[in-house]
Design goal:
The structure holds two protein chains of two kinds. Helix content of chain A is 35%, strand content 22%. By secondary structure, chain A is an alpha/beta fold. Chain A has one domain: 3-Layer(aba) Sandwich (Rossmann fold). In chain A, helix 3 runs parallel beside helix 6. Chain B has two domains: 2-47 and 280-403, no CATH class; 56-269, no CATH class. By secondary structure, chain B is α+β, with helices and mostly antiparallel strands. The longest helix of chain B is centred in the C-terminal third of the chain and has 42 residues, at 271-312. Chain B contains 13 helices and 18 strands. The two termini of chain B are 29 Å apart. Chain B is elongated and about 110 Å long. The chains are: A alpha/beta, B alpha+beta.
Amino acid sequence: MKNIININSCIFKYPHAVKNTVNIENLTIKDGEHIFLKGKSGSGKSTLLNLLTGVIEPQSGSIKILDTDITTLSASQKDRFRGDNFGIIFQQLNLLPYLSVEENISLACGFSQKKSSNIKDIKKEIDFYLDSLKIPHAMKTKKAISLSVGEQQRVAVARALIGKPKIIIADEPTSALDDEVKDEFMKLLFKQVDSQGSTLVFVSHDKSLSKYFESVYNFDDINRIEA
Amino acid sequence: MRELFYLTYKSIQNRKITFLLSVLSITISVVLLLGVDKAVKSSKAHFINTINSTDIIVASSNGSLDILLNLVFHLSDPLKEMNYKSFEDIKNFKEVAWGVPLALGDSFKGFDVISTDENYFKYYRYSSSKPLSFSQGRGLVGFWDIVLGSKVAKKLHLKVGDTIHLSHGHGHHKHTHKNRVFKVVGVLNKTMTPNDESVFMQLKADEAIHIEWQSGHFVDMHISSEKLSHMKIKPKHISGMLLGLKNRSAILGVEDKVNHYKGENLKAVIPAKALSKLYKLMKNLQDLLMIISSAVFIAAIFTMLSSMYSTLNERRREIAIFRSLGASAKDVFLLFAFESFLVVFSGVVFGVILVGVFGLFSPFKLSFGIDFYQFFMLFCMVVIGLLSSLLPAFKSYKNSLADGLSVRM
């Protein structure tokens, strides 16, 4: 299998910080893999996600994604690259409260030409994701703010998946969910990610989620920060 | 880009009240600034045109403002009288097309009485060369005829056919000429000039009723009004005269001729020039009004900025979402800048419309359009609004770079 993410000798330090926040010798993720990065909050996980998606730039090292070293891209190229190739799910508050469910989902295509060109009929596509993520169609026109947290997270998954980006990044997406809802959420997420062949990078402090993944990394083992 | 417009629209819709209040505060300041400017310009035009088509005003006084205030605005102390003979002389200058005598000093129930002749209504022009017109009746023809300004007729409930008695002098030394009955023959249309508050009578009738006055005392000479009107009475003195020339280019020559008139000491005043001079007195007040209006605009900008800054924090989350979907920090900047532009721009547009609508119903009938200076002023307002909006936009740009995709709430 082809490498989809390859990080090499990557160092990132926040300005004015004493220690490096991220120091990764090597991290390779293969196409279609589901990996679980386990780690406490404050261990630099979110910083790594910002690096992967090109929001911040490392002081040294390379970050190769889909054969592109994103550290060589300009700021606007990085933004376009992020919009085209990533689907991102946050811990909570993923949705714009003043947009409807439908509008929130299609927003992903509004910012990426690649995603919208991957789609023939946006209405049908939205319906498809609503069905597969078990979101009632009646909610389509409802404002995001009127949904439960579980529903909101599922809409966030739909938005991350629409347009078939190669990489799905999930940053603690289940931490605001109850245990039963959590299990259903994980199953739906996996089913959908698999069916469109996306790579999943899942970051969480919740060890109990390890069972869903084939590869589990301890973030502290990857990120070598001198004590 | 289309996405940004749509999101701005949606985001504004979500914060309707704040948005509308910001727009309203800009609208109010535009109404003030534009309204004051329009009112000032219109009142200036109106003021300067209180009298026009009269080329020269002549009186026997040294101050041109005194002459103007007295003969046109019916204010200030009485002028030194000039001889009626001088009036006849000047009227017969070869350059002169017409001359109208004016004598002021009497009052009728608080309104000024202007003694003149029928030519006053023929030659007096105001505004854009509009002649005086009658809402009822006609001008002065008969000896005991009276014409009323619109306000006089309205206030005193007088109409054509009514009869009145005139009093002599102002204030305490008033004496009513009870034995002389005047008849209202005409009422003027509203002009928004001092004519509205004037009572017009024949100069010869004015002279006639004063025949029985000798060194300030009334002496009954038992002359009937009928007989009086047929007596050959020639006025001796008048307050001043209005002159129209055959050719306006002769204006300076005639001015000079009048100023060096042999018979007595006379002064020629060019009304347009004197009016502009008088108008300068009001300039400071208008400048003050403009300064206050500008301050209101600055306050409105601060209102907008404070409302934008207050939403900045709660919108950090929103911005992180945009960023995660591929929006650049530049897009975030544009989003905020565009929103403030909308506030300022719609405020200005509403302001212009409101001023236009008010203008149509104002007594001066302000024009709906705006002149170049006003356009420039509005343009500056939009630019100032846009420049100041760059502050919150820049702040959100910095936030979005610092927060990345992870906002710690």
